[in-house]
Amino acid sequence: MLRTVAAFFLAAALPAAIPDIVQTGKGQVQGADHNGVTVFKGIPFAAPPVGALRWKAPQPIAAWDKVRPALEFGPRCMQGNIYGDMVFRDKGPSEDCLYLNVWTPAASPSALLPVMVWVYGGGFAAGAASEPRQDGQNLARKGVVVVSMNYRLNIFGFFTNAELAKESDRNSSGNYGLLDQVAALEWVHRNIANFGGDPSNVTIFGESAGSFSVSALMATPLAQGLFHRAIGESGAFFSTILNLKPLAKSEEADAAFAASIHAPTLAALRAMPASDLMAAALKQNEIRFSPTIDGYFLPQSVPDIDAAGKQSHIPLLAGWNRDEGSYHAIFHKDPATAANFVAYAHEHFKDKADALLKLYPAATDDEVKRSASDLSGDQFIAFSTWKWLEMQAATGGSPVYRYEFDDAPPQPAGEESHGAYHSAEIEFVFGALASKALPWRPQDNALSDLMSTYWSNFAKTGDPNGPDLPKWPVYNAQTDYQVMHLDATSQAEPDAHRARYLFLDSLK
């Protein structure tokens, strides 16, 4: 009897949670409560893209009769071991990979909480929603429903082919991974209310290729109205590093690849085992297969769509990390000296070299390392994200907020700091510092709490600001292009490097 009474009061002390069995449009799924956040893993949102469905737009999933367990992550999409910092909690790669996950703190389906839909990065070649640093549980505790999905990668997600274009009803091929993202958003629109989420208040957010995806989702007419705010962490399709190829050029290159593996026809390509096809693709450049201007998902390039004001006119929060690049990307095996940087500037920037060297100074060898790292990071990520913000501010008609992540995660004893490197902010946003065995400091935990609060506030209202938070001004000329610097002493300051981005913009 005493145990029963104790159990009653313990249960009453825990936060209320949505029932662990939820009805979706295709059948019931059963999740599990984690101290007030109910978690559903591995919910299929489209039919397995295998056999005749390989390289087709995502198709509807068949309904099921019995309650479907949603307790384990679905398989990640086919990929190689490309990035050493990626850790997965699924059972391995599979061509059958179109699954999503939901973390909901809602007490009932009528809660109508804001929804945040995450798109992972990985160069469109790797990644999965099962990574511990992207776990949505702690972010959901900020009062939002978090959703993450898998999407097809590499050759399975972005192969183009003239036969595929003829087979489709839109004379288009490729971008299947991006179409998967739209299918997941459509699933959210249809089903998320049953999980306590508000389908009329959806924020998409992503990092690296996920941020590029967010910029594309804002541009495509296929996703209009499926989300209402957007967050981009490091990257957008305004870049020469990961640019959008014209469909005809992509189909020509992919036809040559198919011939090189002795599978010149679509039937032969679909007959190949997924593992063999993946192995052949991995012999190519790691981002060899990537998004295209396919005439359907993207009728034009993202910059052209934004310039015409045809993108989603919604609030945007975006930025990048201080140390996105490395001076090694400039010098390779050469010494990082002032003389070598000046020579690089004249070789690559010709008559603009002197202007470049004023913005990226090279007075000393130590200064050169910083300048070369900055130039590398600007060319890799920063400029494209800056241009996206500028375009949205000019044509979007909605508020824009910009950040710079400046916190260098602490490294184990004896290891050199990597600075505020590319992807370092992910675990801060998700409140998932514990996913990495690093000697985290109190300031890191405080910053993580601040960032997850900013991100969730933005999802709730379109404004990251809130009580007792450092003021984050809108990014525009009237506010002197204020940037929120995120570190141990987070504060907003006018953009100190605007001249660099204007210079890079003038080169196009």
Describe the protein's architecture and organization.
The protein is of the alpha/beta class. The chain is built from 17 helices and 18 strands. It has helices at 2-13, 137-140, 154-158, 162-167, 176-191, 209-219, 247-260, 266-271, 274-282, 302-307, 328-331, 338-349, 353-359, 365-395, 426-429, 442-461, 498-506; strands at residues 21-24, 27-30, 32-34, 37-44, 68-69, 76-77, 93-94, 99-104, 113-119, 145-149, 197-207, 229-233, 245-246, 292-293, 316-321, 400-405, 482-486, 491-494. An 11-stranded mixed sheet has the order 3-4-8-10-9-11-12-15-16-17-18, sandwiched between helices. A 3-stranded mixed sheet has the order 1-2-5, with no helix packed on it. It has a two-stranded parallel sheet with strand order 6-7. The longest helix has 31 residues, at 365-395. The protein is globular and about 70 Å long. The N and C termini lie far apart (77 Å).
Individual helix count: 17
Shape: globular
Give the uncertain stretches in residue-range form.
Answer: 1-14
Question: Reading side by side through the largest sheet, how are the strands ordered?
Answer: 3-4-8-10-9-11-12-15-16-17-18
Helix share of residues? 25-40%
> Any idea what the radius of gyration is?
23 Å
Main structural class: alpha/beta
Mean pLDDT, rounded to whole units?
94
Helix and strand arrangement:
Blueprint: H1 2-13, E1 21-24, E2 27-30, E3 32-34, E4 37-44, E5 68-69, E6 76-77, E7 93-94, E8 99-104, E9 113-119, H2 137-140, E10 145-149, H3 154-158, H4 162-167, H5 176-191, E11 197-207, H6 209-219, E12 229-233, E13 245-246, H7 247-260, H8 266-271, H9 274-282, E14 292-293, H10 302-307, E15 316-321, H11 328-331, H12 338-349, H13 353-359, H14 365-395, E16 400-405, H15 426-429, H16 442-461, E17 482-486, E18 491-494, H17 498-506
Parallel strand pairs: 2-5, 6-7, 9-10, 9-11, 11-12, 12-15, 13-14, 15-16, 16-17
Antiparallel strand pairs: 1-2, 3-4, 4-8, 8-10, 17-18
Helix pairs in contact: 12-13, 14-17
